[in-house]
Sequence to fold (381 residues):
Amino acid sequence: MEHYDYLIVGAGLSGMVTAEQLSLKGRSCLIIDQRSHLGGNCFDKPDKNGVMYHVYGPHYFRTSVPRVREYLSRFTEWRAASYRIKVNSQGRLWSFPINLESYEEWLGKPATEEDFKSYLAGLPKLSSINNSRDVIVNAVGEEFFNLFYKGYTRKQWGRAAETLDASVTKRIPIRTCRDDRYFSDDFQALPKFGYTHMFYRIWEAIKRQCPASHMQLDTSLKDIRKSKQIAYDHLLYSGPLDEYFDSRLGELPYRSLRFSLECIGPDKLNNPDHPGFAQPALQVNYAGDEAFTRSVEVKHITGQITPYTNQVWEFPQEYEKGKNEPYYPVPYDEAQALAQKYLAMAKAEPNTTFLGRMALYRYINMDQVVNEALQVSETLK
Ligand code: UDP
Fold:
């Protein structure tokens, strides 16, 4: 029987950061992941032509938390990134997130920031903001909501914006100036050699700091429990919240995606507007009734010099346990209410800590995940 101080379920950001912090305290960890790689959904790798891509959709690292940046800088150098995207709606491309340029495109003529502000000031205001549609309609009016948010949100979540929490569309800035960056955080950069490389560096640190720690891929919590070969004092769980409890109060909804990788050779990359690239921006969102929501070409931000490129197309779908992966909790009232019940059970679970987007059922970003893992690690013995 092998014994570890901690069993860590999930080799994504939550699990790896916590294991690293615990290894500094001399605590041994067995890190398991049911997939055959570390890095969780941050995992990236080269395609058949050697062009990097984000296997589980785009991961645009940004943070305004100095501690998170300093922490990850122990394991990676950075490459500054401008995350710029376009929206394809009504048969053309638009500047997005909504900014002065989007307003000019909509007007069909040049405008000033004052023009845009006075347009917005003239819009009717809602008396209360109750959902993710209200947030946008109240800020920029129904026309912009219909142009950019209505169709995309329905596809992405399989439900109308009216039924989703306000926080969903609040994630994206709305600006009256020409700043068209997708995020406003102080620090916006990618790990210079990719996320997977950064995760290997974290793993090297764990092994150096506590050689008794191990990682076992292609292994689930059920496998460990069944084998009866592994003993541990504490469990850190970053998988889906309800599945830990065999969904005994009912299944929590998650949203899944299908990713379609398209590898593209130099013969197809001669568009004079963006030579060497397949699309005009890092990410193009599709707000219409296409089955996909976005195409991502990370070569725009990795800076890789290659005559090839790739695009990853995202097709939203329902999560079906065992068939696909859960990527998002679905923020609406009934789901949140059920999640609260599971979270209360999680809190009462002895010697067990729940951490990360799936286990806390919260739509949080990478830097928040790292920050919470650092905070929780301080409390672990
Ligand atoms: N959204 C939208 N149109 C867009 C981009 C985003 O309607 O072109 C809405 C949609 O509901 C989406 C949410 O805003 O789920 C948050 O977008 P974000 O890009 O942050 O989503 P993520 O990258 O986390 O999937």
The pocket of uridine-5'-diphosphate is lined by residues 87, 96, 148-149, 152-153, 156, 168-169, 171-172, 285, 287 (CB under 6 Å).
